[in-house]
Structure formats: structure tokens, C-alpha cells
Design a protein that fits this description.
1066 residues, Immunoglobulin-like, 7-stranded mixed β-sheet, 7% helix
């Protein structure tokens, strides 16, 4: 038995004997379950380690040879990892076989065996390294990879097809989830590292380094990583034997590679001292031509997510420069960045090239530019390199397989230590500048200028890569007053020179009546300026959201109604939720009521608002467009409407909100970086504020209007003498998204809208004009629409789910003028038509789940994008439902389709499914109220749909809402006449008495007297009644009385209408 120590976890391992007592004969492939396919470790010029893992215990061996030469067998050491310690479903054995006495620069084939049997997928090849200091070494490097993403798998495919000798990993080998936000485990290590790269890990060795998601307390400081990889142990010391494999070095051809630990062995002071002492000694002792160091956290990164790790820089960078390290690879920022050859402590010496290669598969972060940066990109990639005695070439390979950046280091060319020359040409020292000023620089070098950086007040604002070196400086990004500008030039060897700082005076005052301030706890002081009609606003702050805001505000007062329009021309991408836009705000307090229409760098256009002081914020998303975009806010009374546009002419409404604000508010431009540590700068032009009576309202309160969806031409609406004329473009109100002009107001709860479509322009036979109830102002919103068209008649159209497909019910032939009506009762929406506005015909009803408050109004779509159609509406009436009667409505028993009830102007439309009201259990829809003691119900069954000859509609008295309840039922059917039906006992059989021939319209009546006597009557006029029958039924003192409909066909819904409904005695 032997013992291996993995991060304090003792695992018992069985060492296979060199001559097993019994080994099966030459076997054939069988179902040996590979937990991990073979992978190579520690390949040198004379040795290699083959590792694999199986459920089966072994004994395990590797057989290898050169070509068809003699086969050699090496027995493996097998270590058992129990399921309880790994968190996996099953325990497994990790087998490690060391192949020794190999020849340099030689290719071997091998196969692994377990229990004397070959293993499917268990063969591979390996190529030994050339002798130290000789040959050419080709390697790839990548980091931040293990999420299982499509990008990671695509890069793995490219790597498999590439040519290289070994691979390096710059840390965060795997994460705990696909988003790259939690820590790795043995499960994700198997799935997202060994599983994804297995096709080339069997033939190319991997030398990884620890990342923060591989090694911290939650992962027992890298237990899964340290047990899975078999790495050089030369980092161990007497004081810290557990530093073995955390950092290490090895030679391969002409390269000395060093893997460092930026996690535990750097972050704990005593361990850091130990690692630094080891590193200094290791670098001092190597004689290899090239020195390449790699690890996780980046000492030099201009990335906008993590940036440079200054602790890593302080610890390692002086040693890299002192000992002539040529290339440093790191990750942590999920991006690519290559530096110029860089030096901080030893001017005149060869610099160190730093590469961030953190784009191996996790979500990428935004890249930036810094003084040291030669190239950066926010993209998935890997790095490949080749080194011989003279040259180290570097290439970055993207997802397309193409090289998007390259560099070259040389040992055989003379060392360039001459800096470039650089001078500022304009503006002159002491010059006064405003608006946009052109900064001109001249630079030259004896070899080549790599880049010129322009600094304002010591902060890099531009990197210029090509001549002429000019930069258009928006001076409004700084406060008025004196500022310094400086140019710094860099050559390809990393030498740099400065022009010296030059002072200029900036003057950008905001025009009256504009003023600016920071609102809330911003973290950094913001600024704002204006020049030539362009406003530049820089703001910090964590957000404009929740109960309090933090941002920079440029504002002026607005009294009464009005609007603000602006084009957000640019906005910095400090954070995906950096916001820039127009705002109307009651006060400049952090928790003030406000409405805002924002543009963001990566998220959607957003209409956001706070309806009460210190209250929560609300959000309505717009499209995914970003800057440049036009944004608009309109105030009409206490109704605030937000719109967006691509051209400032055709507007799309994003949302509307009723907020009680003071008569005079602040209106203006708002910017928050969504990060208290950084300013975000946005530029605005086409800024216009219209106040008071000059604002284009055009409609009486509470109406407002706007375009919905992509219309192609801006719509409009105007009111005169009780008539509202609406002009709308758009391809259609149909499909999954609509395009039309909408005149609307809010409706809370139940209610109805009625209008006469007096005329509709015949732009297309499917031009549509009508009344609409709509959940939101988004193009894909749920809605109900009762419309008139020029050539396709009347129709009830609706969308029952957001972004779902539309549904159509014809309303028959006809065109304007025509009356249309929509009624909401709960989530039931019913559409009606009329020739005179008095007698209404139900077109159809539909169940649509909408919010309590919706938008109700007039809609026009020309059915042709970019072409307006006009429609005139009069006799417009919007009414909220009166206080609800004590009616309730529900399905009883096993119904195949959901029923519904709508009441409008005393007419009930009841829709019910169900197989019957009969037998021992019923299935129907019931609209009911309670009746205590004696009483009666009367109704006229005006219509009944013929879903079956025994479809039933009538009045009912019922003891309970159970399917088998006692009841009495006076009914009408389509072709089986009138009847009095009842159930005398709960769950008992039903009883029938014919009421003679007849169908709707017919009056029906039920009377309860003496508590137990139920009598059914029918009438043709509601005055002269005929008794159909009476029955003694013992029910409770309080029962349910109401209207009942069953389709007698459980696959369909039967619609029946009742009017003249009265209940007495309750």
C-alpha cells in the first residue's frame, strides 16, 4: 500500500505488483467505464506520465512502443477516490503510469489496460521533448475556459486541428456553473475539461496553473485540481511540502516554463515569501534561451472588469525584469490583451511582454487600453506560440480560426534601447479651447513607432496607432478651467518618450436656463458641458433604480405640460446597465418621483420611473437598440409618456404612467455609470424642450397617443367636436408583433369602450380601424381588437399571450360607418358590432390574462409600412364597470373547455362546456349569487348556440357547487324543447319533465317556496307564465341561484345570452 496526500485528504491507493499473481489472457475491448480518457502529464525528453480514470479497480497498465517495435509494459499506481469525498455518483480509480527511459524527439504509441483488458478509447500517442536548449517548441495557452459553452467547444475543435507540442492553462480550468460564476468541482472538471479536450489531451501534455475558481477555501484550496493533474513537484519545500504542484517549472526544448500560484501561495504572506524566494532562485539558475512564466491573475490588464492585480505586479514584475523573463501569460480578465515589451524598474533593458489570455470559454469581459497595451480585444480565443533559438512568435486565434493579433520577440537582433521622439503640435500652450478641439502630435523612431497615447490631466483618453496622430477632443468631458495635455510615444521594443505636459484652458458653459448637479451618492463627482448644440454629461453612481438614485443631472424647470426630446449620440460602456437619457423629475432628491427614457450600452432601451417618493422603481423594456437613439418624454397633466425613434420623426411609444407630480418639475439629461468607481460619459444632441401650451398635446385628457412597433411613418391624432381622427402606418396588427398608431387611456378593472368608426381610408383592403384593449405598449402585447376594414369586413382579432400568434373571428361583411364595442369582465374580453349603437351583436369572446390596469383606445394600421391611413371615430365612450353585482361565475364538474360570463348593459353572455346537466353528476358553466330562504329567478334566454340538440341554457337553483349537487333547472335547448330537470338527492339520478316544444328566445323562471318546493315556469312574453312542474327537494336554507349553460359536447363551448334577469327574495 502507498499513500498520497491531496490537500490534507489521505487517500489509500493500491500499487499494482510488477508481476500480478493472475492476469487474464490477452483480452479484447470490453465495457470498462472510463471516467476520464487517457491524458498526458509531465512529458520531458526522457519520460512521460499517462493518467486515466475508471470505475474498475485494475490492476492497470500502459503498453507502449515506437512504430511496430517491441512493446513495453509499465504498471500503474491506482488511487481510489470515494463518492463520499468527490461528490460524484460513483467512486473511481485514477491510474498513473510513468514511462521512463524514453528517447528525445521520438513519437510513441500507447494503450491503457485495466484488469488485463484493453479499454475502448484508451489508446493514444506521445512525442517526447527535444533535448533541453534545442529544437523548436510549439505551445498553446488559454484560460478561463471551463463552462461547457459553445465557444469553449468551438475553440477545443480548433485546438485539436492545430499543431503544437504542449499546452498551458492560465487558470480557472473549470467553474461550477455555465455562467462562470461559481467554483469548479470534480464533476465539472470531468465534464468541462477532460471531456471537452480529451481528443488532444491523449497526445499533447497539459501544464495548468491554479485560478481563483480552482483554488480557494470552498474547493479545499484546489483539492480536485491537485488530485487530477500530475505536475512537477519542484515547488515544494521543507517548510511547505504542500506547495508541490501549486507552482513549478520545467524545460521543453529551448524554453524554460514557470507556472506560478496567484492564489493561496501568494495571498498568505508567509507562503508568498516562500514562493518568491523559489522563483528568484529558479529564474537565476536556468540557462534556457527563453523564459516563459504563466499564472492566473494579471499584473497588467486594461480590462474593464478586473483590471491589473497590483499585488501580483508588485510581487512578481521586478523579478521578471531582473531575471530577463521574455513572456508572461495570465488570465482572470476574460479577454485578450498583448502589451508592448514593458519594463518599470530597469530602463534600457529588454522588456517583458505580458499577454492576458482569458477568453477560453467563459463569458467575455470588456477590453480596454492602457499605457502598456499594444492590442486588446473582448473575444474568445487561444494563444499559440513557437520558440526556437532566436525567435518567439505569438499569435492569437479567434473563434473563426483566423489570427487576429500577432507579435514577435527576438534574441538574435540588436537590442533597441533608443526611445522615439514626440512633440505636441496643437493646441498651443495657454490656448483657450471649447467644444471639440483637434490635438495634433508628431512622433518618429529609429525602428518603428508602435503607438501614441494622449493624456489629459494624466489620464489616457486616446491611443493612436497610425499617422497622422490626431485626436478630436471633446473638451466638455472635463470641467471648465486649466487642464494639461501630454503625448507619449512608444516603439515596438517598448521604449517610450513624452512630449511633456502642456496647459490649455477649457471653457464650456451650459446655456441658460440649464444647470447641472450630482444627485444621490455618486462616488465620483460628475461634470457637464455644452458646445455647438452638443451636451456632454459624465456621471458616476450605482444606478437610477430602486428607492434612491445616483447620477449626474443636467436640468431646467418645466411648468405644466411639455416635452423633452434628445438624441443620445454616444454612451460609454462602463457597465451593461450604464444609462443615459431624458428625465422628468419632481425634485433633485435621490428618492424623487421621476420618469426616464434611457439608452444603455448592452441592455434594452428602458422606460423607468418611480411613482412615489422613496418608492420602488418600475421598468418597461423597449427595443435592443443602443446609441445613437432619439428619446422623448411628454407630460400631459399627470400622464407621462415615453417614446423612442431612430430618426427623430417616426416615434414608437414604449410606455405611459400616471404619476402625481408638482406643477413645476425638473426636466433634462441624466447619466449614471452603474459604478460608483467610474464616470460614464454620454453625448446628447438635438436637445429640445417644449413647454406649456406649445407642447403638441392635440387630444383631450386623459387621452394620449403614439406609434406602436415599426410603423415606418410617424402617426398622429387630433380631436375636434367630439371626433378623433387617427392617422397610422404599420404593416399590420397581426402575427406576433404589431405596428399601428394608438390613441389610448388607462382602464382599471372591468369596463368597456364603444365607438363609431365613421370612416377609414382605403390604403389596403386590410387597413384596420377599431377599438382596442391592450395590456402594454410593446409590439407583442396581449390585446383584444374589434375592427372595421375597407375590404375585408369586420373582425374580432386578439393575441392571448405576449409575442404569441394572433387569432381571428370574422364579424361579417361591412365597412365604415360601423359601431364597435369591447367589454372586459375579469379576463374575459367580448367584442360586439352594431349598425345603430343600440342593438348589439356578439362577435365572439376570448379569455386573455391581462393585468388589472390596461390601455384602452382607438387603433389604426394602414397595413403598409411607411404609408399613413386615416380613420375618424365619434360617439366614443369609455366606461369602467359599475360596482359589481353579487354575481360569481365558474365551471361546475368535468368540463372539456373553460367557460366564461360577460355582463354588458344587463345582458349576460354565458359560455359553457360540459357533457350535460344530467345523470348523477353535471358539467356546465354557472353564473350565480346566493339566495336565502324563499325567492325566485326570472330570465329571458335570448339565444343559444346549437352545439348539440341537447345543449341547455336556463335558470337554476342549486344547493352546492359540487357536480352531484341537488338542484332545479328550467331550461331551453336548441331542438329538444323546454324542460324542468332536477336532482333530488346528492349524487342521485336526474329527473325530467318536458315543457313542450320551443327554443330561444324564451322566458324561464324558477320559484322556491316553503323552503322545499321548487316550481318551474316558461313564457313567451315574460307576462303569461305556464307551470312546467313542481318538485319537493330538501336543500339548505341558503342556496345558489343563477344562469346555467352546458354545450352537451365536451369538446366545444356553447354560448347563450340572457337578458331581463331578476332575482327576488334574496
Amino acid at each position: 500500500m502507498i499513500f498520497r496526500l491531496f490537500c490534507g485528504l489521505v487517500l489509500v491507493a493500491t500499487l499494482a505488483p510488477s508481476h500480478p499473481a493472475s492476469v487474464s489472457a490477452e483480452g479484447t475491448a470490453q465495457a470498462i467505464e472510463l471516467v476520464r480518457h487517457p491524458y498526458l502529464q509531465q512529458v520531458t525528453s526522457t519520460s512521460a506520465v499517462v493518467v486515466w480514470a475508471t470505475i474498475d479497480a485494475g490492476p492497470a497498465e500502459v503498453r507502449y512502443r515506437v512504430g511496430s517495435g517491441t512493446q513495453t509494459t509499465v504498471w500503474a499506481t491506482s488511487t481510489f477516490f470515494s463518492a463520499s469525498t468527490t461528490g460524484l455518483t460513483d467512486g473511481f480509480y485514477q491510474h498513473e503510469a510513468t514511462l521512463q527511459g524514453l528517447k528525445a524527439s521520438t513519437t510513441y504509441t500507447y494503450e491503457v489496460r485495466v484488469g488485463g483488458m484493453t479499454v475502448t478509447g484508451g489508446s493514444g500517442s506521445l512525442s517526447t521533448a527535444p533535448p533541453a536548449g534545442t529544437g523548436t517548441t510549439r505551445f498553446i495557452a488559454f484560460g478561463d475556459s471551463g463552462t461547457g459553452s459553445t465557444e469553449q467547444r468551438s475553440l477545443a475543435t480548433l485546438m485539436r486541428a492545430d499543431t503544437f507540442d504542449l499546452s498551458l492553462h492560465t487558470g480557472d480550468v473549470v467553474y461550477g456553473n455555465a455562467g462562470g460564476t461559481s467554483d469548479g468541482s470534480r464533476h465539472t472538471l470531468n465534464a468541462w475539461f477532460f471531456g471537452i479536450y480529451r481528443d488532444w489531451l491523449r497526445s499533447k501534455p497539459m501544464f495548468p496553473s491554479l485560478g481563483n475558481h480552482d483554488s480557494r477555501q470552498s474547493t479545499s484550496h484546489g483539492a480536485a485540481y491537485l488530485s487530477a493533474f500530475v505536475l512537477p513537484t519542484n515547488g515544494a519545500s521543507a517548510s511547505y511540502p504542500d506547495h508541490a504542484e501549486r507552482y513549478y517549472s520545467f524545460d521543453y526544448g529551448p524554453v524554460h516554463f514557470v507556472a506560478l500560484d496567484t492564489e493561496r501561495a501568494l495571498q498568505e504572506p508567509a507562503r508568498r515569501s516562500e514562493q518568491l524566494a523559489w522563483l528568484a532562485a529558479d529564474l537565476a539558475s536556468t540557462t534556457q534561451p527563453w523564459k516563459v512564466v504563466y499564472f492566473h491573475r494579471s499584473p497588467y490588464s486594461a480590462g474593464l472588469h478586473h483590471g491589473s492585480d497590483l499585488a501580483v505586479r508588485q510581487a512578481f514584475a521586478p523579478l521578471f525584469e531582473q531575471h530577463g523573463v521574455h513572456l508572461v501569460l495570465s488570465a482572470h480578465d476574460h479577454l485578450y490583451e498583448r502589451s508592448l515589451p514593458w519594463r518599470e524598474t530597469l530602463p534600457g533593458h529588454r522588456g517583458v511582454t505580458y499577454i492576458v489570455t482569458g477568453g477560453g470559454g467563459a463569458p467575455v469581459y470588456p477590453a480596454g487600453m492602457a499605457e502598456w497595451t499594444a492590442f486588446s480585444a473582448s473575444t474568445h480565443h487561444y494563444v499559440r506560440a513557437a520558440a526556437d533559438a532566436c525567435t518567439l512568435s505569438i499569435e492569437a486565434v479567434g473563434l473563426s480560426g483566423k489570427v487576429f493579433d500577432s507579435g514577435r520577440l527576438s534574441l538574435c537582433e540588436p537590442l533597441d534601447v533608443s526611445p522615439p521622439s514626440v512633440a505636441l503640435v496643437a493646441p498651443a500652450a495657454g490656448a483657450q479651447v471649447s467644444g471639440t478641439a483637434t490635438v495634433s502630435v508628431e512622433a518618429s523612431d529609429d525602428v518603428a513607432v508602435s503607438k501614441v497615447g494622449l493624456y489629459v490631466d494624466g489620464v489616457l483618453v486616446s491611443t493612436m496607432l497610425n499617422t497622422p496622430y490626431t485626436y478630436t477632443w471633446n473638451t466638455a468631458t472635463v470641467n471648465d478651467g486649466d487642464h494639461t495635455i501630454e503625448a507619449r510615444a512608444y516603439d515596438t521594443a517598448g521604449n517610450r518618450a513624452s512630449s511633456g505636459a502642456r496647459t490649455v484652458r477649457v471653457s464650456n458653459s451650459l446655456p441658460s436656463p440649464w444647470e447641472t448637479r450630482d444627485v444621490g451618492a455618486v462616488g465620483l463627482v460628475g461634470r457637464a458641458g455644452a458646445s455647438d448644440g452638443t451636451f456632454t454629461v459624465a456621471g458616476a453612481g450605482d444606478d437610477i433604480w430602486n428607492a434612491a438614485d445616483a447620477f449626474r443631472f443636467v436640468h431646467r424647470p418645466l411648468s405644466g405640460d411639455g416635452q423633452i426630446i434628445a438624441r443620445v449620440r454616444t454612451v460609454d460602456n462602463v457597465h451593461p446597465w450604464t444609462k443615459a437619457g431624458v428625465m422628468m423629475r419632481e425634485t433633485v432628491g435621490a428618492g424623487s418621483r421621476h420618469v426616464s427614457m434611457f439608452v444603455t450600452p448592452e441592455k434594452v432601451l428602458a422606460f423607468q420611473r418611480r411613482t412615489s417618493t422613496g418608492g420602488p422603481s418600475a421598468h418597461t423594456p423597449g427595443s435592443s437598440a443602443t446609441a445613437p437613439s432619439f428619446v422623448k418624454l411628454v407630460r400631459s397633466g399627470n400622464t407621462f409618456t415615453a417614446s423612442v425613434s431612430t430618426n427623430g420623426t417616426a416615434w414608437t411609444v414604449v410606455g405611459s404612467e400616471t404619476i402625481s407630480m408638482a406643477g413645476t418639475i425638473a426636466v433634462g439629461l441624466a447619466v449614471t455609470s452603474h459604478d460608483t468607481r467610474a464616470l460614464a460619459t454620454a453625448t446628447f444632441d438635438n436637445v429640445a424642450v417644449t413647454t406649456g401650451g406649445d407642447a403638441p398635446v392635440g387630444l383631450p385628457s386623459p387621452w394620449t397617443n403614439g406609434d406602436i412597433g415599426r410603423v415606418g411613418a410617424a402617426g398622429a391624432a387630433r380631436a375636434a367636436g367630439g371626433t378623433i381622427t387617427v392617422e397610422g402606418a404599420g404593416a399590420d396588427v397581426w402575427g406576433t408583433a404589431d405596428a399601428f398608431h394608438y390613441v389610448y387611456q388607462p382602464l382599471t378593472g372591468n369596463g368597456e369602450i364603444v365607438a363609431r368608426v365613421g370612416s377609414v381610408q382605403n390604403v389596403d383592403q386590410w387597413t384596420k380601424a377599431g377599438v382596442m384593449m391592450r395590456e402594454t405598449l410593446s409590439a407583442g402585447s396581449r390585446h383584444a381588437f374589434m375592427l372595421v376594414s375597407p375590404g375585408k369586413g369586420l373582425a374580432f382579432q386578439r393575441r392571448t399571450s405576449t409575442n404569441g400568434t394572433s387569432i381571428h373571428t370574422t364579424g361579417g361583411t361591412g365597412t365604415a360607418p360601423a359601431w364597435v364595442k369591447l367589454v372586459r369582465a375579469g379576463n374575459t374580453f367580448s367584442a360586439y358590432k352594431s349598425a345603430n349603437g343600440t342593438s348589439w351583436t356578439l362577435v365572439d369572446s376570448s379569455t386573455i390574462s391581462m393585468g388589472t390596469t390596461i390601455l384602452v383606445g382607438l387603433a389604426v394600421s394602414s397595413h403598409k409600412e411607411g404609408v399613413l391611413a386615416s380613420a375618424a371615430f365619434d360617439a366614443i365612450r369609455v366606461e369602467a364597470a359599475a360596482a359589481a353585482l353579487a354575481w360569481a361565475s365558474q365551471d361546475i364538474g368535468a368540463v372539456g373547455q373553460s367557460g366564461s360570463t360577460v355582463e354588458s348593459a344587463g345582458t349576460f353572455t354565458v359560455k359553457g362546456s360540459g357533457s350535460d346537466v344530467w345523470g348523477t353528476a353535471d358539467g356546465f358553466h354557472y353564473t350565480y349569487r346566493q339566495l336565502a330562504g324563499d325567492g325566485e329567478i326570472v330570465a329571458r334566454a335570448a339565444t343559444i348556440e346549437n352545439t348539440d340538440q341537447w345543449a341547455k341554457a336556463g335558470v337554476m337553483m342549486r344547493e352546492t357547487l359540487g357536480a352531484g349537487s341537488r338542484h332545479a333547472f328550467a331550461l331551453v335547448s336548441p331542438s329538444k324543447g323546454l324542460a324542468f330537470q332536477r336532482r333530488l338527492t346528492t349524487g342521485g339520478e336526474s329527473v325530467h319533465t318536458s315543457g313542450g316544444a320551443g327554443t330561444a328566445p324564451r322566458w324561464v323562471r324558477l320559484v322556491r317556496s316553503g323552503s322545499t318546493t321548487f316550481s318551474a315556469y316558461v313564457s313567451s312574453n315574460g307576462t303569461s307564465w305556464t307551470l312546467v312542474g313542481s318538485e319537493t327537494i330538501s336543500m339548505g336554507s341558503t342556496i345558489h341561484v343563477g344562469l346555467a349553460v352546458t354545450s352537451h359536447n365536451n369538446s366545444r363551448v356553447c354560448a347563450a345570452t340572457f337578458d331581463q334577469v331578476t332575482v327576488s327574495g334574496s
